[in-house]
Structures are given as structure tokens and as C-alpha cells.
Amino acid sequence: MSIRLFALLTLLAPMPALAQEEPPPVEVEIVGGGVKGNVTIAIPAFPSQAGPGDGVGRQIAEVISADLRSTGLFTPLGPNGVATYGASQAATPAYPTWRAAGASALVSGYVESGAGGRLTLACYLFDVTAGRELARQGFAVNAGDWRRAAHKCADLVYSRLSGEQPFLDTRVVYVAETGPKNARVKRIAIMDSDGSNHRYLTPGQATVLTPRFSPRGDKLVYMSYQGRRPRVYVMDMASGSTRLLVPGTAFTFAPRFSPDGNRIVFSMASGGNTDIYVVGANGGTPQRLTSTPGADTAPSFSPDGRRITFESDRSGSQQIYVMNDDGSGQRRISFGGGAFATPVWSPRGDLIAFTKIGGGAFRVGVMNSSGSGERLLTNAWQDEGPSWAPNGQFVMFHRTAQGSGNATLYSVSINGGQPRRMPTPVGGSDPSWSPLND
């Protein structure tokens, strides 16, 4: 699957040239530690050959609207219930119409079908209040990949207005759970970040856990009970082929790639102890990084690959530790009440997400990489297993309903706000967010 990006000047000759000076962003207000969705943004159906408001142009506007609503920063208007327009008006919007509709920003564009089944999406962003263009870009895709063009347009709008890196054109892998609680079938599934294009990657004959993307998104590393032993496997996403990471019969689990994709850190149980090891992504002899009594597990690299955070019960309860990538300099960084598990380093390097265990509940929170500034992002009965969006602004996790054992996926902004349920066709746990698609 490929996507081609280009300036709209190459699409339509009569379109005005891009502005020479970058206009300032529309202000997005963040109030009291939570993000307030105060930007009302109109997203009418994109005109296409099928008509001003029909066919794929309407579907694209629906995807853009859902994407932007999911960020918590925007209140979309449309595509239902707002005016439509022709392709010639995509770059010259009728600002009074959108001001009257209550919009402060507008996403417009058009869709063209070309030779070889290609589809071109033109995407414009306007500041309705000031009456000026903020951004424009074109995306050419195979017709079957129209949703990716919509996600790219939504990312353009999100980044231009928030000042943050894009994250909407991404995928999610997770453990899809079906069947009764005492005979649960757990398969790895993959979907777009909005829940579309869902499919299974493993057949369900062996229970699988902790799928994690490689930095390029072309491989997965995960733990499987294949052969009735928990061991780490690597899957090639293009071919679907799998291989055992560390030969032998030792129990291996909790794997994760290094930021450059050249190493995999994981836990191995041997001689009655569980420690953290690292090995080349293509295999080899594992290097032991920890050797203290107790269970050391859930390792995660810092973005520069020079440090690793992990959980350990060496102090008598589960706490978060950091160490250098050669195992030196181990030190505890969590000292709040309760226990801490599944630490994951933010792709920005400034925060570590974790599962907080205390008061009969599991909650997801973040702390500075030094251990200071602990704060909780959720407040349900059992939230756990955080995974970062590639821009470091959102955390995905799984929530288990009390008494049922049924888990579902949620995401939440690190700035606060209500968690948003992720659409999945079956129960799900242990999500992993992909890097931004190429």
C-alpha cells in the first residue's frame, strides 16, 4: 500500500499559489490540565465525480470528522447537516456561510479519479474567522486506500492547528479475545487507528500476548504459548512468517524492540529467577542485564536507546526502575503509594506511562522519566497496559469491566479528558500503537 503526497499546485493550475509566509495557528485552549474542544470546524462532503455531496467524497469527510473529534480538540460540523459546494469552490470558500454556521475553521477539498484506479484527494484548511488559508496538500492513493487519504488530511489539520506531530494515519495491534472467561481464545489482530480494516494475524490455536510493533512497523514481536511454553516470536508483517527469537526451552516473554529496531529486550525465567535480557533483532546470544532476586520484567527502551525502564519486585512490591542499556546504573524511580507495572517510555522521552495498582483498582498514569510528577489519567476499576501514540500525546490501554472479565480498548490524552473507547469487533487487550504509516 502506497500513498503519494504533493502540493496542490500540481493538481489544478488555476488554484492560487501557496502563501509565502506561514500563518500563525488557530489558538487551541488547554484549560486546567484538560483539553477543551473549543475549535468548531466545518467538514462538508468533498465534491467528486459522483456529485457535490455524494459517494466517496462524503465518506472521506465522515472519516476526517471522526478523526478530528477523537482528538478532543475539535467539535466537527458535518458532513451531515451542512452546505455542500462544487470542486471549483474548494479553494475559495464562502466565508460568510461558514461563519453563519458557527465554524471557526473549515476543511474543504475535492476527489478525483484517475487512470489505473488511482484516486486523488485535495485537502484545504481555512481560518474562517480571519478569512484566510492555513494549509493545503494533495494525496494520491489506490482507490481502495481512500481511508488513508482521509486520515492524512485529518493529520494535516490536526498538526496545523495543534502544533503537534501527526498520529491519525496509524495502525493498532492488540490481543483479540473471544469465548468464555475460562476458555478464552486470544489472537493478534490489527486495525487502523479508527478501528477500520480489521483482520486477524494469528489463528487462535495458541494463546498470544504482548504484541509490539517494530519502529518501522514492518515486524511484530510477541509472546506465544505455542508448544505449551511461553516464548518470544518475531513476525514479518508482509509475509506473515514467524520465527522463534531465542532457541531453547526457557520461558521468554514481555518483548519490545529498541528504537533503531536492531535489538529486542525481553524477560527470561531461568533457575527460579526472572531477569531482563537483550538480543539482536535477528537472534544471537542474549545478554543478561539484571541479576537481582525477584521478577524483573516489562522492559521498554528510552527513545535514544541508551536507557531502559522496567518493573521489578526486588524491593518487596512492583516498582518502576531505570537502567542503562548495558544493565548498569539500576535505580528505582517510583515511590508513590501502591504498586507500579508495565512502564513504557514516551516517544518524546519526557514521560513514562505505567499501570498503578492500589486501592483495589488498576489505573493508567504518567510520570516524568526522573520519577517525579506522577499523575493518573484514568479512574476506572481495571485499566492497564498503556501504549503510546507515535506523537507522545495519547495513550491507549485496555479496560476490564468489573465482574465480567471482558476487556476493551480505550485511548486518552495525556492532557486529560475522558477516555475514548476504541471500536473493535470483539473484546481486546494489550494494544500497541504503530509508528506513523509511510
Structural notes for this entry:
- The protein has a six-stranded mixed β-sheet with strand order 1-8-7-6-4-5, covered by helices on one side.
- It is elongated and about 70 Å long.
- The protein has helices at about 55-70, 95-100, 145-160, and strands at about 5, 30, 35, 40, 75, 105-115, 120-125, 130-140, 170-180, 185-190, 200, 210-215, 220-225, 230-235, 240-245, 250-255, 265-270, 275-280, 285-290, 295-300, 305-310, 320-325, 330, 340-345, 350-360, 360-370, 375, 385-390, 395-400, 405-415, 420, 425-435.
- The protein has three helices and 32 strands.
- It has about 450 residues and is mainly β.
Helix-strand makeup class: mainly beta
Q: State the helicity in percent bands.
A: under 10%
Major beta sheet, strand line-up: 1-8-7-6-4-5
Biggest β-sheet: count, sense, barrel? 6 strands, mixed
- What percent strand? 35-45%
- Taking all residues together, what is the mean pLDDT? 90
The low-pLDDT segments are: 1-25, 27-36
Distance N to C terminus:
9 Å
Q: Please tally the helical runs, counting DSSP H or I stretches of 4 or more residues.
A: 3
- Form type: elongated
Count of β-strands: 32
SSE topology:
Blueprint: E1 3-6, E2 30-31, E3 34-35, E4 39-42, H1 55-70, E5 74-77, H2 95-100, E6 105-113, E7 118-127, E8 132-142, H3 146-162, E9 171-178, E10 185-192, E11 199-200, E12 208-213, E13 219-224, E14 231-236, E15 242-244, E16 251-257, E17 263-270, E18 273-280, E19 287-288, E20 296-301, E21 307-312, E22 319-324, E23 331-332, E24 339-345, E25 351-358, E26 361-368, E27 375-376, E28 383-388, E29 394-400, E30 407-413, E31 420-421, E32 427-433
Helix pairs in contact: 1-3
